[in-house]
């Protein structure tokens, strides 16, 4: 298992958002519950897909193509308390013709720690057939540019068990 990067290191990815954690995420233990972590990761994924990858409503309307989640694996590293300031990031880990492997990172800016990571695999989908298809060239180019930029980073994150862009043979 690799050590977690510092907040300064993940900040190099450029935060997708910075926000204060709302009261609704508090659980009986007094910290942010699993649903709160997951909501933050989903907000990050949606923001990155729209802003960085270009899979927004206009693209879907124009092409009839989007993405479906295939696998998610959340790892909790440090707790977050309500009222803490958090930020979220995307790092692309790999791409195949029809799938992308990535991770969102939620950092606790109040404590300076990585709070949780969500490693995931998405399939690019033709919504008329509801089947995976090869990425549109414009989307593949954006993902590949991010992948090249992210692969050059000097740090890594603990990976989940067997997530990736291809199935074992």
Keywords:
169 residues, six-stranded antiparallel sheet, 6 strands, alpha+beta
Structure described in brief:
The protein is 28% helix and 31% strand. With 169 residues, it is of the alpha+beta class. It has one domain: Hotdog Thioesterase (Thiol Ester Dehydrase, Chain A, Roll).
How would you portray this structure in words?
A hairpin with a 4-residue loop joins strand 4 and strand 5. The chain has helices spanning 7-11, 34-53, 57-63, 137-151, and strands at residues 17-20, 65-76, 85-95, 99-108, 113-126, 131-132. It has one domain (7-151): Thiol Ester Dehydrase, Chain A, CATH 3.10.129. It starts with 6 loop residues before the first helix and ends in an 18-residue tail after the last helix. With 169 residues, it is an alpha+beta fold. The mean pLDDT is 93. The radius of gyration is 16 Å and the shape is globular. Strands 1, 2, 3, 4, 5 and 6 form a 6-stranded antiparallel sheet that branches. InterPro entries: HotDog_dom_sf. This is Acyl-CoA thioesterase FadM. Pfam families: 4HBT_2 (PF13279).
